[in-house]
Amino acid sequence: MKLTKKIKTYCKYCRKQTEQKINIEKTGTKRGSLKKGSKNRARLRGRNRGYGNLGRYSKPAVSAFKRTGSKASKKIAIKLTCDVCKKSTIKFRAKAKKAEMVQEEK
Question: Per-residue pLDDT averaged across 33-52, rounded?
Answer without folding.
Answer: 73
